[in-house]
Amino acid sequence: MSAPQALRDRMEVLPLAGYTEQEKVEIAKRFLVLKAVAGTGLTNQNITFTDEAIQTMIQRYTREAGVRNLEREISSICRKVARQGGVDGNSVGEGITADNVTQYAREVTHAFIRALVWHSACRRTVRYEGGVAPSTTRLSKAANRSNALTPPA
């Protein structure tokens, strides 16, 4: 931990269960991709995933401690490739890379942020929800900052 010792003495460190990003990449390569490819009737000649593509999916589409959503995303991509002719043998092979993973993965539509608001009278967490439109990166705020600094009743 990079916090100063005086600060660490006053903090409570909570260990959170979950996989690191590199562990998720390895789980995806060894198990999830093989399961999704076999489940859609594709072969390794029809579709391949690079490590960078898997890492991009983890960073952009599946921000969770486990790998359930990662498995869903990989399966979704495999189904799209199968619909495009991968099962019939019409396609020579589709390489899923970090550059083209966004063509196959679902569109990210919502983001949730939990922020700590600190004031001399109170402190509390506030939840912000943002909707991201395809043509803009503007976030809409779902929480009111003035209410966040009001002491609880």
Write the element-wise H/E pattern from the N-terminal end onward.
HHEHHEHEEH
Mean pLDDT: 75
Q: Please give the CATH class of the largest domain.
A: Mainly Alpha
Known CATH architecture of the largest domain: Orthogonal Bundle
Strand order of the largest sheet: 1-2
Helix content: 40-55%
Shape estimate? elongated
User: What radius of gyration results from the CA coordinates?
Assistant: 21 Å
Counting helices, strands and paired strands, the structural category is alpha+beta
> How many distinct beta strands?
4
Relative strand content: 15-25%
Q: Kindly give the count of domains.
A: 2
Identify low-pLDDT runs: 135-140, 142-146
Specify the biggest β-sheet.
2 strands, parallel
- CATH topology label of the largest domain: Helicase, Ruva Protein, domain 3
Tally of separate helices? 6
| Distance, first to last CA | 36 Å
3D structure, described in words:
The protein is an alpha+beta fold. It has two domains: 84 residues, Helicase, Ruva Protein, domain 3; 39 residues. 41% of the residues lie in helices and 16% in strands. The protein is built from six helices and four strands, in the order H-H-E-H-H-E-H-E-E-H. The strands form two sheets. It has a two-stranded parallel ribbon. The protein has a two-stranded antiparallel sheet with strand order 3-4. Helix 3 crosses helix 4. The longest helix has 19 residues. About 7% of the residues have low confidence.
